[in-house]
Design a protein that fits this description.
single chain, 171 residues, alpha+beta, Alpha-Beta Plaits, SH3 type barrels, 2 domains, four-stranded antiparallel beta sheet, 3 helices, globular
Length: 171
Amino acid sequence: MAEANWYVVHTYSGYENKVKANIEKTIENRHLEDQILEVRVPMEEVVEMKNGAKKQVQKKMFPGYVLINMVMNDDTWYVVRNTRGVTGFVGPGSKPVPLTEAEMKPLGIKEASLVVDFAEGDSVVVTGGVWKDTVGVIQTMNRGKQSVTINVDLFGRETPVEISFTDVKKM
């Protein structure tokens, strides 16, 4: 499988969060979770003075841009490029250029890979969150999102639930 890289997408100003939501919905509908791993609108904490009072607010670091961690191929390019609000990828012509490690460092996005001792089919117990102390069998693993999907018994039915790697422990 090809390697995922971070790409920058140019959007209409003010549409960053809408574009992010639309891409995430398309990922879910077309089952591209293994190809488009993450969509981000980089934010930063800023102190503003309003009416003589200091107020801490979240501001977009790059208005008009969205970062996407994805495997570049014809399908993913088409999905992102044809999302409402997207004007194009950043790069010469129609060829998107991935961000380098040096460009990623100031954004605070780290490629920290978590080593886990469980795999699909293993029984795990949830150690945190809403489903704490729930036991389930791993159905799928998403290394990009660092999460597992397990089936839990909810109202007498098997229901798939996505849980972070850090919130599960092998039995």
